[in-house]
């Protein structure tokens, strides 16, 4: 990917700072950050100071999020007269369009990347929604089909934080805070309200989770201790880099499920320096250090929580982002794949690469499945047969990365997803080979 900045842009685009939720400080010009204060009477270089708050001012210290941005123009100068803008395939909760899909476990093949031009905005395809964007609860799961870069255009999402997991092709996020490059196996998280544009150097497909609630954070580790799972130092936030570009530019905002667009005369990605703990970040999913059963049984998948977005109820996440990375299976006298189950939480699953042990066939990279609130699921007949008869030597599930967006709220399937030709009509059949093996005469 070419990283030469166009004329008029700064060269400082390569760097990241490590840590999760740190109070970061970064400046693209020396002395652009005021020292020891946020709001000097006059900022260096004629910049404007602006605070971006991701939490209420009064949130407890541990969840209080804000950053100070030192920019060429304040955001009030980056807006004009907004007009409504149609992006009909990007749906928000509550989704009021009825569809007749029966309740049952659902699975889809990958949606092919089209030949025609789609940007990160026009290519967003909503699969499920849950909760209500306006009451800041719930989420949406999307597939982004991207064949073209956003050019001379910027977007911000007032409804949600966005977690983006490229599955095919790379995505570059040019944000107010700096540049984030992501490839399959990595994620980017763009906080609510942060302006950005997505660029591609070839066709790309990504899983996207919109989090309408409080921000993703790291789960508690409890008795696991201070290390393993997702480690703080592996999260990377970008160093400041800015565009000083006075040219026609489109700004689109998603607000209350509605898109609004305006034209302005300059790029809003004009932040020369920033400090604070509210910033986009990336994470390489292969850095996740899984912890699991080392003698017997199959632990609950919560041991694989990479990030969690808590709700007001303790232990009841608005969203858990759960990984199934490569790992050794060593448990003795154990049915090693996931057990059969029904669950309060609703599970949207995707596969970035490799094979998932409960569904060796039919669940393919780029595909996705939905096991909704209190609907039964578990290993397919084939996986059951193999796992119940396999010799239990240590075995590595290698080169695989599945994940789950798991929410406390039931997920509604959009009309678009319900009518996709990729919806597998025969998904339920994957369990039809489970024979009755009960025999009261045999133990
Ligand atoms: O349904 C799934 O495949 C996800 C899952 C995995 C697991 O190891 C235990 C429970 C669970 O929901
Ligand atoms: Fe499950």
Describe the fold and architecture.
The structure is a single chain. The protein is mainly β and 443 residues long. The chain is globular, with a radius of gyration of 23 Å. A hairpin with a 4-residue loop joins strand 7 and strand 8. It contains two helices and 26 strands. It binds 2-(3,6-dihydroxyphenyl)acetic acid and fe (ii) ion. The site of fe (ii) ion has 5 residues, from loops. One of its GO terms (molecular function) is iron ion binding. Belongs to the homogentisate dioxygenase family.
Question: Any key phrases for this structure?
Answer:
Jelly Rolls, binds 2-(3,6-dihydroxyphenyl)acetic acid, nine-stranded antiparallel beta sheet, 2 helices, six-stranded antiparallel beta sheet, disordered N terminus, globular, 2 domains, mainly beta, 443 residues, 26 strands, binds fe (ii) ion
């Amino acid at each position: 990917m070419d990283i030469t900045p166009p004329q008029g842009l700064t060269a400082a685009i390569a760097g990241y700072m490590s840590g999760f939720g740190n109070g970061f400080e970064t400046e693209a010009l020396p002395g652009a950050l005021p020292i020891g204060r946020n709001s000097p009477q006059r900022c260096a270089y004629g910049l404007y100071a602006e605070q971006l708050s991701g939490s209420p001012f009064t949130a407890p210290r541990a969840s209080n999020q804000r950053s100070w941005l030192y920019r060429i123009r304040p955001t009030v100068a980056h807006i004009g007269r907004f007009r409504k803008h149609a992006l009909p395939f990007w749906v928000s909760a509550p989704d009021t369009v009825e569809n007749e899909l029966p309740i049952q476990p659902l699975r889809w093949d990958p949606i092919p990347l089209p030949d025609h031009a789609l940007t990160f905005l026009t290519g967003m395809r909503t699969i499920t929604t849950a909760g209500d964007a306006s009451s800041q609860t719930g989420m949406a799961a999307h597939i982004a089909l991207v064949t073209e870069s956003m050019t001379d255009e910027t977007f911000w999402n007032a409804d949600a934080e966005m977690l983006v997991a490229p599955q095919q092709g790379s995505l570059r996020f040019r944000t107010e805070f700096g540049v984030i490059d992501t490839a399959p196996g990595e994620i980017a998280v763009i906080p609510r309200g942060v302006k950005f544009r997505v660029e591609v150097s070839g066709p790309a497909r990504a899983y996207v989770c919109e989090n309408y609630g409080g921000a993703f954070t790291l789960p508690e580790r409890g008795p696991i201790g201070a290390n393993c799972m997702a480690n703080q130092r592996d999260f990377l936030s970008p160093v400041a880099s800015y565009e000083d570009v006075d040219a026609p530019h489109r700004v689109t905002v998603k607000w209350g499920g509605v898109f609004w667009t305006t034209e302005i005369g300059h790029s809003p990605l004009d932040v020369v320096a920033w400090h604070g703990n509210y910033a986009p970040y990336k994470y390489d999913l292969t850095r996740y250090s899984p912890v699991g059963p080392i003698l017997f049984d199959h632990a609950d998948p919560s041991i694989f929580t990479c990030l969690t977005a808590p709700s007001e109820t303790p232990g009841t996440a608005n969203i858990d982002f759960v990984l199934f990375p490569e790992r050794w299976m060593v448990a003795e006298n154990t049915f090693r794949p996931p057990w059969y189950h029904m669950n309060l939480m609703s599970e949207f699953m995707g596969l970035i690469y490799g094979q998932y042990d409960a569904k060796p066939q039919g669940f393919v990279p780029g595909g996705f499945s939905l096991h909704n609130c209190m609907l039964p699921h578990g290993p397919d007949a084939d996986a059951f047969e193999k796992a119940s008869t396999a010799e239990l030597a240590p075995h590595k599930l290698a080169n695989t990365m599945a994940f789950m967006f798991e929410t406390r709220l039931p997920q509604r399937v959009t009309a678009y997803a319900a009518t996709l030709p990729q919806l597998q009509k025969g998904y339920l059949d994957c369990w039809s080979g489970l024979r009755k093996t009960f025999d009261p005469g045999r133990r």
